[in-house]
Amino acid sequence: MRFMAMIVVATVFGLGTLLMNSAARADVVCSGDTCWHTHGGYHYPPGVVVRHDDRWHWGHDEHYRWREHEGRGYWRNGVWVTF
Q1: Sequence-distant (≥ 6) Cβ neighbours of residue 37 within 8 angstroms
Q2: Confidence at 2, pLDDT banded by 50, 70, 90
Q3: Domain-wise residue ranges, the chain
Q4: Is-contact 28 54, C-beta < 8 A?
Q5: Using CA atoms, how far apart are residues 5 and 74, in angstroms rounded to an integer?
């Protein structure tokens, strides 16, 4: 009985950790020199954006800027395009 309880606790803990890590994911998406965080698995039109993982940052000699926005879409020439 004690062994079974340990298995249940370990399973619940493992699933909880997995769900927390997947919910906290926020990829970085860039269009030209503008980057923002996305919290969903959006499918952008081909060739419009470059997707990076949430640990990405640009290099010392690169020049990007952050522009956050709520909702589904992407930045194009300084304008938020919703899809």
Answers
A1: 26, 27, 28, 29, 54, 68
A2: confident
A3: 2-82
A4: yes
A5: 48
Which residue type, as a one-letter code, is found at position 64?
Y
Distance CA 8, CA 29 (A): 38
More confident: 1 or 76: 76
SS (HEC) of the chain: CHHHHHHHHHHHHHHHHHHHHHHCCCEEEEECCEEEEECCCCCCCCCCCEEECCCCCCCCCCCCEECCCCCCEEEECCEEEEC
Higher pLDDT, 18 or 73: 73
Query: Using an 8 Å Cβ cutoff, are 35 and 29 in contact?
Result: yes
User: What is the per-residue pLDDT across 10-66, written as a single tens digit (0 to 9) for each?
Assistant: 554 554 444 444 455 678 999 999 999 988 778 888 889 999 988 898 999 999 999
